[in-house]
Write a structure and sequence with these properties.
Blueprint (H helix, E strand, L loop, with lengths): L1 H30 L3 E16 L2 E17 L3 E14 L2 E17 L2 E8 L30 E9 L5 E8 L6 E11 L2 E10 L2 E12 L2 E10 L9 E12 L4 E10 L13 H4 L8 E10 L4 E10 L4 E11 L4 E11 L12 E10 L1
Antiparallel strand pairs: 1-2, 1-18, 2-3, 3-4, 4-5, 5-6, 6-7, 7-8, 8-9, 9-10, 10-11, 11-12, 12-13, 13-14, 14-15, 15-16, 16-17, 17-18
């Protein structure tokens, strides 16, 4: 099955990338009038402490981006290559993060290729985001795209329908979805129907502002969830608020997973590697506080909490913009909890620092 899935994925990507190349060549005479090139080069060092021992891994990564556009067509490419030391061995690889052609037609946009399709409103978790789910331990991480065809039909300034046919990296089936987004009396909202691994998923989300307090919520239900006879219900509730003219920002989110364990002894450790948006415990909490103490420097702290086993992951970070093109980041994550808990079973500490040159 793995060989068949790999072969199908390679063939699917090859066909789509060939179509993109043809479209880019055909469109190039008009697109070349407005080319853009950029990217960044990052050198970083990460340290992991486990059972009192440290392991340090240096890494350097080059990302290149290019965009060609006229009034009706846009071609965008985002590729990266990296080299990294792990222990005594060196590894290198390259990846296509995004590569797509977008065609702007009257009332309709069509995007073909590897792209980001971010549904939902959540930051640490996003039950509605079945294509590009976030990483709760690092919600600021750039998410790679998925190979997909996306059709967006406009119904007005803030109302549109999205239809997606995309690869599912975790199976040999295609994922499909249809989403309607609207805006009513200050409320952004959407509803969707999707299939993943041939199982239907229904859901929706909303976001609004209540006297300066941002509120967002998501709800999804998978009736034929293969690992639970009662289906799977995910509910996210979040809010955010800012002070000092936006310099101090707080965000909090609560996630309920009906298939999460109510007791740590019922944990199924294979689940997070198999399921998107998976949590071990039934109840999880995320809090983040960010303070920009001037125009070039900011500090952030975010805390992930498993409310079932009382384990936490505490992350402290600092970002400095050294000049127009240069940025320095430093981050440390502390995993707190007893052995056998979700975050207590990670490494003791993870630290990292990196310099990024943007061009």
């Amino acid at each position: 099955m793995l060989e068949r899935a790999t072969t199908q994925l390679i063939r699917t990507n090859a066909v789509i990338l060939t179509v993109l190349l043809i479209l880019a060549v055909v469109s190039f005479p008009t697109l070349a009038a407005s080319p853009w090139f950029g990217g960044d080069w990052e050198s970083s060092l990460r340290g992991v402490k486990t059972d009192g021992d440290w392991e340090w891994d240096p890494r350097t990564e080059l990302t290149l981006q290019a965009s060609l556009r006229d009034s009706n067509v846009r071609f965008f490419a985002d590729v990266s290559g990296w080299i990294e030391q792990r222990g005594e061995d060196w590894y290198s690889d390259a990846d296509v993060n995004r590569l797509y052609v977008r065609m702007f037609l009257p009332k309709v946009d069509l995007t073909l290729g590897k792209q980001q399709i971010n549904w939902g409103t959540g930051r640490a978790w996003s039950p509605s985001d079945i294509f590009n789910p976030p990483d709760a331990l690092n919600p600021d991480r750039q998410r790679n795209g998925v190979t997909a065809a996306l059709l967006t039909i406009s119904h007005g300034p803030l109302a549109y329908t999205s239809m997606v046919l995309a690869e599912d990296p975790k199976s040999d089936d295609l994922a499909m979805g249809m989403r309607y987004h609207g805006y009513t009396d200050g409320i952004d909202w959407s509803v969707f129907l999707a299939t993943r691994k041939q199982n239907p998923i229904l859901g929706g989300d909303l976001a609004m502002d209540l006297a300066g307090l941002g509120v967002h919520s998501e709800l999804t239900y998978e009736p034929d969830f293969p690992y639970d006879d009662g289906g799977r219900l995910l509910w996210l509730m979040g809010s955010d608020y800012s002070w000092a003219k936006g310099k101090l920002v707080w965000m909090g989110e609560y996630l309920y997973d009906s298939t999460g364990a109510k007791d740590p002894k019922d944990y199924k450790w294979w689940r997070p590697g198999v399921l998107a948006n998976a949590t071990l415990g039934r109840h999880s909490l995320f809090n983040q506080l960010t303070y920009a103490y001037d125009d070039f420097n900011s500090v952030s702290v975010h805390l992930l909490s498993n409310l079932v086993d009382d384990s936490q992951a505490l992350t402290l970070s600092h970002t400095s913009i050294l000049d127009t093109h240069l940025q320095w980041d430093i981050q440390a994550t502390y995993f707190l909890g007893d052995p056998g808990t979700e975050y207590g079973s990670h490494a003791d500490i993870m630290v990292g620092t990196g310099i990024t040159y943007k061009f």
